[in-house]
Amino acid sequence: MDNRKLFVSSHAPYWHNGSSIASKSYNIMLAAIPAVLMGIYQYGAPALGVITFSISCAMIWELVMNLIMKRPISIGDGNAAVIGLMIGMLLPAATPWWVVLIGTFLAIVVGKQIFGGIGCNPLNPALVAIAMLFLSWKGIMDFNEALLNYELGFPMVYPLSTLKYFGVEAISEFSAGALLMGAQIGGIGSTFGLGLIIGGIYLILRGFIRWEIALSFLAGVFITALIFNAANPDVYAGPFFHLLTGYTLIGAFFLSTEDSSSPVNFIPMLIYGALAGFLTVLIRNIGAMVDGVVFAILMLNLANPLLDKIRPKALGKEMENA
Amino acid sequence: MIKRPFFGCGKPKLAYAGIDGPEQGDIKDIPVSERAVLFVEAPPSAINDLSFQAGDKIKTGQNLRVSPFSKAAFTSTVTGAISNVAKKKGYLGKPLLSVSIDVTETDEFDEDFARAVQTEEPEETGRYLSELPGAADLNALIHPKTPLETIVVNGMDKDLLVTTQQMIVKSKADDLKEGIEYLKKITGNPKVVLVVPNYLSTEASKSGVEVLTVAPSYPNSLPEMIMKDVLKKVVPAGMDSMSLGVGFISAEGVASLKSAVTEGKPPVAKMVTVIGKDEKTQVVRVRVGTPIHSVLEALQIPMEQGDRLVMGGPMTGRSIYTEEMPILPDTDAIMVQGRDRIVLNGNDPCINCGECIRACPVRIPVNMLVRLLENSQYENAAREYDLLSCIECGLCSYVCEAKIPVFHYIMLGKYELSLMERAEESANG
Ligand code: SF4
Ligand code: SF4
Questions:
Q1: What value, to the nearest 5°, has the Cα angle with vertex A240 and ends A239 and A246?
Q2: Is residue B26 included in any domain, yes or no?
């Protein structure tokens, strides 16, 4: 044998910009911290319990699936933890532990792994779980019922339920400022508007989520609510109320922007976001459900493969078809 | 390595190395090595009936046909004795013959060279000039399939950190003028334009031809981008600029032509930007055929087990497995990457993050393309997802969050397609 040095060989490029799935996941978790902390501050230990249990369960389900399917262990990329965190943020603080266990199972196993794992899920896994929980145990996902035993110094009613069942007059007790500061009941990490906005802006500026989706979702909600409100202000709440209540903000920044289930081309991203926002308000104002974010985004997840076909022609292809 | 900026929600912005960088030392001359290796593109069968053999003497500038049955020929860049001929395979399986030569110190120049260059008989000139430093494709310009309307002299470097071509524009603008005149003569008088990064326009104007400038950000110097941005012509997918009557030659190639014609001797030195482990660069002048280890030794850049050696720059270069590889007429750069800087590819599938979509200069749906390529659906990839529009810039791999070797898949796809095409052709004809 000659003592030739062995070099590492591979195809170009030899540089990488340093991004990774893990860094994206951890930054999403970082961005969620303000909203989560507010939830924990408001509801105390039960909220902390739900969040941490949800993250741990999601990671364990992921690990179990890795082992069963004999795939490389993938909990290190943080994606399962993010899904767990999202579920925790959407649930009320009083959620029983077994609901969390089932919810994370639904998200990781049904929502993600059976489709092939990261990148292959057609729907947002956390939303799949929440939708199934909602359909199975209405009471647990009804914030008024679930949070009956709390007294936090602001109206202990879910703003969107109030709107739905008592009309626009009844929501006058919610000021935009108070809603923004989290003075409303709801999911543990979904009520602190300002925190979610700060987290969202952080993710957008650092390029971890696609701004086109988040902003067009918000625009969709805003414009649709504005039109309804203008048409009949006695029946339909104004746009700011819709922006600051329910899952709107967490939906815009953390849910609709999930990579695998949303488009990547410019026009499709705008359509996807705007339609999801539109559907959200439509469901809230006309549909049977109190909040529309979950099902609106899931619907658009389904439309995503079709939407993403709208794309510019690659250079050099225009001529052929012209 | 240029990392993603802390705030970054748009395209990656990668600037070419400017020529005035403080670390840009003077050009260093590398002494001629004892052994030179020349590569000739020739069918593998040529080795059975070579028109020369080990021990034959060869002069600098001497042009040799590989075999009486093949058109393949090469011009020696050194004087010495042929020691060995071997079959080799180049990038994408290109068949090559490597001719090793034991070099004698003083050059003896072949007289036929001067005569051939002066005849302006395209056949002769093409044969002798086909491997000038920086002008490896000259023959394609002399014998174009579509009549040439324009020749673009590219004064920009192909890759990041490389300053070879800019150095030529800066230091040899006068040579460019004469070189361009000669180039016009042997290619049937097409229009010639000089493309340079915007900060070199003053120097470039000395060339006497129309100067067009480009912003120095990657990948603006690739031929397809120059076609689109500067000449406002779009190269159809799967074709090259020659099919639109536009040829490319590097600034160095033109300068080489000039010295070949005025001196009657072949220019044998290639300018090469050497990129060290710390990404500092040094431009060297080195004889074509010199093994890379001689260059690295002269610059005191040690290579160790587990490092990476690349011919070319960080985005598009080709990694090689031996320091014995010689400097070729189109080697603009050599890059050494320490093992601690090597980023390995990941295991994950595409997560649909969309970074590649933002980065791709020609709007290829890379996220979909890579899914097809991973499953060997090459024809489908070309039809539905624009595989053949790719201009081979490597940005998609550079930004990929899942660290998928996207560019590798793309080149593999193109290669497999070309094999299929060839198989079809031979079946039909
Ligand atoms: S290498 Fe990648 S980024 Fe560059 S043109 Fe091809 S597909 Fe687009
Ligand atoms: S950058 Fe990589 S992971 Fe992201 S969409 Fe493109 S191919 Fe997929």
A1: 95
A2: no
Over range B253-258, report the average pLDDT. 92
Q: B205-241 pLDDT, tens per residue?
A: 988 899 999 999 999 999 999 999 999 999 998 888 9
* Mean pLDDT, rounded, of chain A: 93
B395 ligand 1 Cβ < 6 A: yes
**What's residue A322's pLDDT?**
39
CATH number for the domain harbouring residue B324: 3.10.20.90
- Decide which of B195, B228, B263 is a domain's last residue: B263
A309 touches chain B (CB under 8 A): no
pLDDT of residue A320: 47
Q: Which atom of ligand 2 is nearest to the CA of B355?
A: 1
Is there a single domain that holds both residue B362 and residue B378? yes
Return the number of CB contacts < 8 Å for A and B: 190
Instruction: For residues B404 and B379, state if they share a domain.
Output: yes
Residues B334 and B391 in one domain: no
- Tokens, residue B60: 């600098």
User: To probe the interface with B, which of A3, A7, A212, A319 has the most B CB atoms within 10 Å?
Assistant: A7
Tell whether A9 is within 8 A of chain B (Cβ).
yes
Choose the weakest-confidence range: A3-7, A180-184, A197-201.
Answer: A3-7
Q: What is the mean pLDDT of residues A168-179?
A: 91
Residue B416 inside a domain? The answer is yes
| Number of domains within chain B | 4
Task: State mean pLDDT over B398-427.
Answer: 94
pLDDT recorded at residue B20: 62
In this model, does residue B258 exceed pLDDT 70? Answer: yes
Cβ of B228 within 8 Å of Cβ of A9? The answer is no
CB contacts, 8 Å: A317 with chain B: 237, 386, 389
What is the per-residue pLDDT for B22?
41
Same domain, B328 and B375: no
Distance (angstroms) between ligand 2 centre and the Cα of B397 equals: 8
Range of the domain at B386: 355-427
In a domain, B176, yes or no: yes
Give B189 to chain A, closest Cα distance, Å: 28
* pLDDT at residue B185, as a whole number: 87
Cβ B394 vs Cβ A12: under 8 Å: yes
A5-61 residue pLDDT tens: 889 889 999 999 999 999 999 999 999 999 999 999 999 999 999 999 999 999 999
Q: How far apart are CA A245 and CA A31, in angstroms?
A: 19
Residues B175 and B203: their CA atoms lie apart, in Å, by 12
Residues 6+ apart with CB under 8 A from B251: B134, B153, B154, B155, B165, B168, B169, B172, B176, B194
Q: Please judge whether A21 and B351 are an interchain contact, meaning their C-beta atoms are less than 8 angstroms apart.
A: yes
Taking the C-alpha atoms of residue A283 and residue A299, their distance in angstroms, rounded to an integer, is 12
Q: Is B127 in the same domain as B257?
A: yes
CB contact under 8 Å between A7 and B309, yes or no, is yes
* For residues B384-390, average pLDDT: 93
Distance, CA of B295 to CA of B291 (rounded, Å): 7
Q: Is B214 a domain residue? A: yes
Residues of B in contact with A13 (CB under 8 A): 314-316, 394-395, 397-398, 407
Taking only residues 74 to 133 of chain A, the set having a beta carbon closer than 8 angstroms to any beta carbon of chain B reads 74, 77, 116-120
B151 and B213 inside one domain? yes
- B129 forms beta bridges with none
The mean predicted confidence, pLDDT, of chain B is 90
**What is the four-CA torsion angle of A18, B23, B329, B259, rounded to 10 degrees?**
150
- Look at residues B252, B215, B395, B396 and name the one whose alpha carbon lies nearest to residue B333: B252
Distance CA B234, CA A9 (A): 34
**Domain C-terminal end among B311, B341, B371:** B341
Contacts of A5 in chain B (CB under 8 A): 303-305, 307, 323
Q: Does A322 touch chain B (CB under 8 A)?
A: no
- The verdict on B209 and B245 lying in the same domain is yes
Contact (Cβ atoms closer than 8 angstroms) between residue A62 and residue A117: no
What's the CATH code of the domain at B131? 3.40.50.11540
A13 touches chain B (CB under 8 A): yes
* pLDDT, tens only, B95-131: 899 999 999 988 899 888 888 877 767 677 778 888 8
Q: Domain check: are B130 and B256 in the same one?
A: yes
Nearest CA to ligand 2 atom 1: B400
